[in-house]
Write a structure and sequence with these properties.
3-stranded antiparallel beta sheet, two-stranded antiparallel ribbon, elongated
Length: 142
């Protein structure tokens, strides 16, 4: 049997009253007519909503209709998820642009990575986040 919160004009508030579905508007105390008070309840667990947010596109849609309208207004925009065909094409295009840029500068990818590691180490040494490497020359006789 469901539990209701009833509000009767003669009896006052009657919280948590067990009533059948047919009798939920009949007062539990006096049997007269009453109102059923409806108030929000806490939700526990996962609550699904229709809202969708895209960090890639920088927008949020509250309904599917809003998303469809936005996509119609922006026909050249494609949202990518990790691993799909558009994502793979995009990543390949970026890699090709990077390699072309390195070739123009006369560098290889390994040289660029080494230079980046050296720069990071130099900045960490300046900030005191890393320790200096001490190299002992053992080949020189004393």
């Amino acid at each position: 049997m469901p539990w209701y919160h009833q509000k009767c004009d003669t009896c006052g508030d009657l919280p948590d009253v067990p009533r059948s579905v047919e009798q939920y508007k009949v007062c539990f105390e006096c049997g007269g007519p009453c109102e059923v008070v409806i108030y929000p309840t806490r939700t526990v667990g996962i609550v699904f909503s229709n809202a969708e947010e895209s960090k890639q596109l920088g927008t949020r849609w509250e309904t599917n209709q809003q998303k469809r309208d936005w996509m119609k207004a922006h026909p050249n925009v494609v949202e990518m998820s990790k691993g799909d065909a558009n994502d793979r094409k995009f990543n390949q295009r970026i890699k090709n642009q990077m390699h072309d840029s390195l070739k123009k500068q006369g560098l290889t990818l390994n040289q660029l990575k080494k230079a980046q590691r050296d720069d990071t180490r130099r900045m960490d040494l300046a900030k005191g986040k890393a320790e200096k490497k001490i190299v002992l020359d053992t080949a020189t006789p004393k």
